[in-house]
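Table S2 (continued). Query chain:
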Amino acid sequence: MNKQTKKKARIALLVALCVACFGMGICVPLAFQKVNVAADSTEKQKFEAIYNLLVKDWYFKDEVEDLETTLLEKAIVGMTHLEQDPHTNYFNLEQAQSYSSSLAGSSVGVGFSYYLNKNNNFAVKQVFVGSAAEQAGLQYRDEIIQVGDLVCSQVDSSEVVKLIKSSEGKELEIKYIRDGQELKTKVVPAIYDQTVVCEIMDDYAIVTVSSFSEDTGKDFAVALGRLQDAGIKKLIIDLRGNTGGYLVAAVDIASSLVKKGSVVISDETIAGEKTEYKTNDKYAQVKLDQIVVLQNGNTASASEALIGTLKDLEGKKLTTVGTNTYGKGTEQTSIAFVDGTSMKYTVAKWFTPNGTNINDVGWAPDVEVEQELAKRVGYLDMQEDEVITPDSVHTNAAAIQVYLQYLGYDVDRTDEYFSQQGSQALAAFQSDNGLESTGNCDIATWEALKSATLVRIGDNGKEGDIQLQSAISALK
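Corresponding output:
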């Protein structure tokens, strides 16, 4: 290539570059100018610049309802999602109401938990302390067949629940079956605390505490008073699935179990300020010979604080059964905003009487017992047009095969690979339940399989609860 040709080539290249730069310049310089302004700013200025850009110039701004509020809400959510602390959260209006309700621990109703049995009737699982159901004499395993004018087997369960909740303060007749005999009673639905259940057996009692609300300590004291009246000296406290609540409720519960004047728990803020919480003198101590605590991976926060108190102050009497607890040794407070939203944030770490903090560690059980796989296997909601076929991998394949095994069908594996044998077992289940026997799992089969499993779990009751049976054995 001669000099002239090279010169022309260089010119052509420069022209091409200029054309390219001009083409870019049609849409870029203004944006670069704004980015540079933001890049030289403080973080707050950047936030304001980005917010203004989205509100004024963003192409899709008209597609977002109430864009300004949405942007600010998302920014707030982002600020409160920090990897150092998963327990600091901002709640929108719906979430704030749900969170407040969960802390209150109260509800309008009759006051029993249930499962729908094979007859589509309400089978009573637990009756809450102080509830209308307890006052009416309803018990574990009673089969509710009619509430008011509604025959349970003939209507959707939501209709029965709606009737009960809408009848606050009004008398309702309930018909039920106990030991093969049809009985009836009258109840008046009212607000009740749904956190404590007390069941007295021959020589021991089971007190289930599902969360720590404002009234949990009071209801727990009522339950222990019943133990004292019955001469019971052995207690199982079921804290499985209890993710916590008010720390003061854990102090109140401990006040019925440990020596008066004891430091139940303490906390320490980031500034190093320490506070000790002693027993509440209004609760009388009930003397017990043995305490067994049931725990699992969802036993957290205030539940773990109570376990720690019992370990330090009643260790010789205490046995823990189940699996390792969650490991939340921090304390939160919340602030409510005038628009109904709220924020929960961490303010301190709590410590047992001996100074132990179990954050990110939890409590290991004295007797390790896993719950049955059918009660803990995970799954995803299935879509209307979704079908799981044999020789395929799917998250729900594990649950399908675990449930089939629990129901007595022959499967060769319980992982996420849906095998031919698993398909054959499913086909048998479909045939037994009036479904088309394809061996494939569609949404109708999935729902039927889940329902059948829940019924079996409910029917097996306490006798089928491996962890509870181990706790009872620990008492003996």
